[in-house]
Amino acid sequence: QLQLVESGGGLVQPGGSLRLSCTASGSTLRYSAIGWFRQAPGKDREGVSCISAKGGLTKFADSVKGRFTIFRDNAKNTVYLQMNSLKPEDTAVYYCAAGLVATLTTRDYNYWGQGTQVTVSS
User: Fold this and answer.
1) Nearest-angstrom CA–CA distance, 59 and 99
2) The pLDDT of residue 7
3) pLDDT of residue 55
4) Measured by CB atoms within 10 angstroms of the end CB, which terminus of the chain is less buried, N or C?
């Protein structure tokens, strides 16, 4: 059974950076598309970025384009979300998820991590 664990969240000032990691256990991530999602209090979970199994396709929400990048290291069974120029509106719990197709839609993913809190505040 594939299990996902997010790490790397924390408190950062506006304009700062964080790198989130999504590490798998119980199975390989090699054949899975990975999506990053976030959910702020009182809001729906939204897609932030995703990457195909081989890493050739990436997608980003308009709100994070040019600031976030996504990449994967299949040898380490890990996918990363590099977040730069963070804004207070990026504050949310960030989740990674595994599925067959790289999309920004929650219903396309079968396995989810527990989430990591990202807070952007001065």
Assistant:
1) 14
2) 98
3) 87
4) N
The dihedral of CA 86, 92, 93, 95: what is its sign? negative
Please report where in the chains the tokens 């999602």 appear, as a residue.
Answer: 37
Handedness of CA 67, 24, 32, 2 (dihedral sign): negative
CA-wise closest residue to 35 among 89, 80, 85, 96 = 96
Q: Report pLDDT for 113.
A: 98
CA dist 54 → 20, 38, 76, 79 (Å): 19, 23, 14, 11
If you write DSSP's letter for every residue of 45-57 in order, what string do you get?
A: -EEEEEE-TTS--
Q: Which residues of the chain have pLDDT under 50?
A: none
What's the pLDDT tens digit per position in 91-121? 999 999 999 999 999 999 999 999 999 999 9
Which residues are CB-contacts of 54 (< 8 A; sequence separation ≥ 6)?
Answer: none
| CA-closest candidate to residue 51, choices 37, 70, 25 | 70
